[in-house]
Amino acid sequence: MPPPALTDDLVDEVLLRFPPEEPELLVRATLVCKRWFRVISDPRFRRRFRELHRAAPMLGFFCADYWGASRFVLVSSTPLPHAIRGDWRAVDVRHGRVLLNTVARWDDFTFGCSDDLLVWNPVTGDHHRLPKLQEHMYPHPYPYCCDWTAAVLCAKAEGGCDHLDCHRGPFLVVFLCTSSREAFASVYSSETAAWSGPASSQLRRAQEISVIRLPQKPYRYKCIALMATVDGGLGFAAMHGSTLDLWSGVPGTKGYVRWAQSQAIDLKTICTLPASLETVCCIDGVAAILRGMDQTRTYVIIDLKSIIKIKKIFVGRESFPVPYMSFYIPGTDLLSLDLSIFGIVIFQLVTSKYVDGFSVENKK
Amino acid sequence: MEVDKGKGEAEETRKVAEADRDTVTLKSSDGKLFEVSKEAAARLSTVLAGMIAGGSIDDNGTDLKQIGSEALENVVDYCNKHANSIPSAALISSSISFNTAPFKEPEEWERKFVDRLSHDALFDLVEAANFLGMERLLDVTCHKISEMMKGKSPDQIREVFNIKNDYTKEELEEIRQELAWAFYDD
């Protein structure tokens, strides 16, 4: 007797529960039959898939080499459709967007701050180059004496965006620059295509900088990684021996934030670890990336939700990992994009030629 | 009027008696009866919750004509034994404006629960879970089926799930070459 077949209703339900961290499973499922292909390519399926799984999986992370240029290290089995090019370094990643800056070369006069910033989506290939910041933005007369960082954010965050599908929407880039005495911040908006005026630590306006001291007890952490906690507050992760401590900010007296330890995870009980670990990065309550301080430079990735899944990756002498999280579902909305790349987009074109009764809106 | 009132009262009394009971009786398509904790049924199944709230539960066995006795036994088993460890669907979904609760990996006991099922029994249980609006059981059973597809080529998936291939050989070959990364060596 042949095995029973799944009814049409249930095909959707089963495909929805495919693990987002293994996108190749969905790609292979599209080859089973044309009906499965239609289900997976349907925008409603894509929306439900993102809603059901919520947190986008970490496909890999960007690592800077000795000269500062980033390359992509795979964590899942899925290569990104667009490769990062030579002289760019990944500074930050959020909701599928990557903030890049040009790698400063030793003969560059304007070392550091005045490098170009670019917002890029490695799944779709979209990119947006930001205008240069004004020189007077830097607190020190010599730009290379200051330290800076930047973040890319969804511009709809205040309106309650669920960030499941906002990678094409407006975005903000927050640039923060510190010297020994002062800190300056400026915000770029993709909607106005301009940088805001600088907000400094002396200014008390809507944009404001606060200093929050780290806890001194029970340990003085050498290295911490900031993250958003499950309820949207500020938190950080830090290693102490083989224990990963998670802290969150809670309201204290006089409106100040106080730190409270929320979890201590003994990693020794889960797997064998490099002799000494430092926290390098934390993905908002989802995962932590730690780096072994021994010669192997092993990266250990811990799933903070299950605390059981651990991946070890040998990267070599590279540093500054910036994790990349994104959903990656084969489908139709990639069609209107640059088609010169290899990957899902090509797949879409090839299959759409053959699937009868399924019209793909190819606007090209 | 008097008669109508009396009937109304009797109806009311019957409903109260029903509301006092801790269990509900469900009847499978082949006429077998199963008892399930009312609290668990209401918490895990949106359809049963609606029937209990609407008073359409029959003391002599609520007919579930779409569900066979083996599948219903599994549903009842799932509800009765394991109801306590599952948070209410209402509690989860009320927190954020999403339509559904986020998918969580099956727990150890849930894995064991579906692992012991035969292929046919698993498929019947997925259908029953879908029919009864049991989101968590649907998560667990569908996750099991998706795991059965892991590591399988499209050919093998078709074989296991009894699906007819409606692509031509050339179509498949061309796609396969373009997307070599998505395929195991098969």
Automatic annotation (TrEMBL), chain A:
Residues 6-47 form the F-box domain. It comes from the Eukaryota. InterPro entries: F-box-like_dom_sf, F-box_dom. Transmembrane segments: none annotated. SUPFAM superfamilies: F-box domain (SSF81383). PANTHER family: F-BOX DOMAIN-CONTAINING PROTEIN, OS07G0120400 PROTEIN. This is F-box domain-containing protein. It comes from Digitaria exilis. The lineage of its organism: Eukaryota, Viridiplantae, Streptophyta, Embryophyta, Tracheophyta.
Automatic annotation (TrEMBL), chain B:
Keywords: Ubl conjugation pathway. Residues 136-182 form the SKP1 component dimerisation domain. Pfam families: Skp1, Skp1_POZ. Pathway: Protein modification; protein ubiquitination. The keyword Aminoacyl-tRNA synthetase does not apply. It comes from the Eukaryota. One of its GO terms (biological process) is ubiquitin-dependent protein catabolic process. Residues 23-84 form the SKP1 component POZ domain. Transmembrane segments: none annotated. Residues 1-21 are annotated as: Disordered. Gene3D superfamilies: Potassium Channel Kv1.1, Chain A. Involved in ubiquitination and subsequent proteasomal degradation of target proteins. Together with CUL1, RBX1 and a F-box protein, it forms a SCF E3 ubiquitin ligase complex. The functional specificity of this complex depends on the type of F-box protein. In the SCF complex, it serves as an adapter that links the F-box protein to CUL1. Belongs to the SKP1 family. This is SKP1-like protein. It comes from Digitaria exilis.
